[in-house]
Design goal:
The chain is of the alpha+beta class. It folds into 2 domains: 113 residues, 4'-phosphopantetheinyl transferase domain (Ribosomal Protein L22, Chain A, Alpha-Beta Complex), CATH 3.90.470.20; 35 residues, no CATH class. It contains 7 helices and 5 strands. Strands 1-5-4 form a 3-stranded antiparallel beta sheet. The longest helix has 22 residues. It is globular, with a radius of gyration of 19 Å.
Length: 170
């Protein structure tokens, strides 16, 4: 039973927002599920696509907390650290270390949660550099990679494979 509790808190959700094209009324109805301060944070984005990703990110956070911990939406209190990482203000005795993180880029919004360890998530779209080769682009980050990481990135790889491998390393 304890193992079920532990694995039940570990979630990985990914949403492709490209296909969701809400009308203004549908967008407002979805945003109305959130507290006013989160709606204001979404409205600060100028581009519709950015607002959509922000809304889905917020809805994922509330849905995750509700599904994992059983807290009703209106009782969930999500705050952010100084660095911008979301956290659950209301703590439960059974899940004191429960934490989650979200990320979005391009067409995807994701969320991950853990019960016992800190979780991080970064979604990155692999894009080809403009005005320089893949190797020139990656060379800009050479000082941040270990020797092993560098070898994994550049060893016998085509330019596209180098970029894919590069984005795989934190």
């Amino acid at each position: 039973m304890a193992g079920e509790h532990l694995s039940g808190a570990r979630r990985r959700w990914l949403v492709d927002v490209a296909r969701w094209r809400p009308s203004p009324a549908q967008f407002q109805a979805a945003a109305a599920l959130l507290p006013p301060h989160h709606r204001a944070a979404i409205d600060r984005f100028v581009k519709e696509e950015d607002r959509k990703r922000a809304l889905v990110s917020q809805l994922l956070q509330y849905s995750l907390v509700h599904h994992v911990l059983g807290i009703p939406f209106h009782q969930i209190d999500i705050c952010r650290t100084v660095e911008g990482k979301p956290y659950l203000q209301n703590r439960t005795l059974n899940f004191r270390n429960f934490n989650f993180n979200t990320s979005h880029q391009g067409e995807y919004v994701g969320i991950a949660s853990e019960l016992l360890c800190l979780v991080g998530l970064d979604i990155v779209c692999i894009s080809k550099p403009q005005g320089e080769t893949a190797l020139e682009f990656i060379n800009n980050f050479a000082s941040y990679l270990t020797d092993h990481e560098w070898n994994c990135v550049v060893c016998d790889n085509s330019p596209d494979e180098m970029l894919t491998e590069f984005y795989r390393h934190p």
